[in-house]
Amino acid sequence: MSIITNINDIESIRYSGYILSSTYYHLESMLKPGVSAPDINRFCTEFIRSYDAEPSFLGYSGFPHAVCFSLNNEVVHGLCLPEKILKAGDVLSLDLGVDYKGLFTDMAITYIITEDGVDRTCKTHFIENYKDTKSADTAFQQTLEHNRKRELLDVTQKSLARAISILKHGARVGDIGHAVGSYLASRGFGNVTELGGHGLGYKVHEPPFISHSGRKGTGQVLIENMVIAIEPMVTAGSSGKVRFVKNSEFGWDEILSADDSLAAHFEHTFMITKHGCEILTKIPHDKVLPVKSVVFQDL
């Protein structure tokens, strides 16, 4: 596990989080019907590299893309395949990591795609003091099916918020699992317990494994300056079971809900403090990094 006390490394991991959050900030305007997974992958790669960083998933354990692009019943590790083209009604989860000077951050957001873009902004997930200026919902967005999708995203975000509320020096990994798992059980959604959060900082993945199910007062103790990622993955079906489907071209397993129900995924990277935590992937609105190159305007 990474316990980061060097002041230069702390500043570098903060900047890694700035790059990652800024990528999502600009990326959201691209998310609309007709945009393909390779389009998204190219933007993420080029934006991150424009800030002298690297997309940390690219090449990790053989993963061939910068971003995990998971659609509808795909829970996580979705590939950026050319046939994946967004359409209205899709539920899209994007999982992305940044390596800046050897300091790693990790983040995931789920969106609902509409005819005009995304259903409602998720910038409040990663941008402080952001005001939503989108127009009122369309009739399409008022269907029962669409509202169920909204509920799935809302419950997943709130389960992460429950975990954030208990983070501090001296808390335990089991406390995180209990906070997430007990809330999801109360709402009737599926908790994907075969996967979980993890330590990070000097590597993409480090101990401890952070289950989203657990008992209070058990597991690894959280220590001040320890860096972790918490990332509840939730299915609309109540079982939370998943299946691994190998892509023969890339030799990589995409992970889908076992019952083919919709899935959502939200994640932040945290540094534990004495009395709480610093969310490294949530930044002030005025700290968003700009797009540097005109190449992105054509995407």
Descriptive key words:
4 helices; alpha+beta; 299 residues; Creatine Amidinohydrolase
General description of the model:
The longest helix is centred in the N-terminal third of the chain and has 21 residues. The protein has a single domain, classed as Creatinase/methionine aminopeptidase superfamily (Creatine Amidinohydrolase). It is built from 4 helices and 18 strands. About 3% of the residues have low confidence. Helix 1 runs antiparallel to helix 2. Strand 5 and strand 6 form a beta hairpin. It has 299 residues and is of the alpha+beta class.
Short description:
With 299 residues, this protein is α+β, with helices and mostly antiparallel strands.
Question: What topology emerges from the helices and strands here?
Answer:
Elements: H1 7-27, H2 37-49, E1 54-55, E2 67-71, E3 74-76, E4 91-100, E5 103-114, E6 117-118, E7 127-128, H3 144-164, H4 173-187, E8 190-191, E9 197-199, E10 206-210, E11 227-230, E12 233-235, E13 242-247, E14 252-257, E15 263-265, E16 268-272, E17 277-279, E18 283-284
Parallel strand pairs: 7-18
Antiparallel strand pairs: 1-4, 2-4, 3-14, 4-5, 5-6, 8-12, 9-10, 9-11, 11-16, 12-15, 13-14, 16-17
Helix pairs in contact: 1-2, 3-4
